[in-house]
Amino acid sequence: MCNVEGQPLLYITSPSFIANIETIETIQQEESTSIFVPTQVLETKNALLEKQLNFFSKPMREPRMLLFIMNDGERIYASIQKLQGVDVLLNCFHKERWINANNIVTIQHAL
């Protein structure tokens, strides 16, 4: 194949796009159904727990029940409502409770 300088290697024919006012208005009026949730910046001692907390705090149709095992051996069955700094707001059987993320040993999925 001979390449002449300044000549394109491939020609693609495509239909011309003629934008009219109705098309532009239709495109501008459409709404996105996707949800963007920015990840929280946590300052925990454990990077794995940070990733788990960010993942489990994303909104779902039904809350995810998790088992939090704390440093003192306490076991908490709850779902994550909100992250704020190193604090985590949990929903424990319709009661809200704040815990420090640095006090969590592991997070497990509760059935």
Structure description:
The longest helix is centred in the middle third of the chain and has 10 residues. The mean pLDDT is 76. The termini are far apart. Helix content is 17%, strand content 30%. The protein has a domain of 75 residues: SH3 type barrels (Roll). Strand 2 and strand 3 form a beta hairpin. The chain contains two helices and five strands, in the order ααβββββ. A five-stranded antiparallel β-sheet has the order 4-3-2-1-5, covered by helices on one side. 9% of the residues are buried. With 111 residues, it is an alpha+beta fold.
CATH-derived architecture of the domain at 35-109? Roll
Strands across the major sheet, in which order? 4-3-2-1-5
Tally of separate helices: 2
What is the CATH C level class of the domain at 35-109, in words? Mainly Beta
Rounded radius of gyration (Å): 25 Å
GO molecular function: kinase activity
Keywords: Kinase, Transferase
Protein name: 4-diphosphocytidyl-2C-methyl-D-erythritol kinase
Organism: Solibacillus palustris
How is the topology of this model organized?
Elements: H1 21-29, H2 47-56, E1 66-70, E2 75-84, E3 87-92, E4 95-100, E5 104-109
Antiparallel strand pairs: 1-2, 1-5, 2-3, 3-4
Provide a short characterization of the protein structure.
The protein is of the alpha+beta class and 111 residues long. The chain has helices at residues 21-29, 47-56, and strands at 66-70, 75-84, 87-92, 95-100, 104-109.
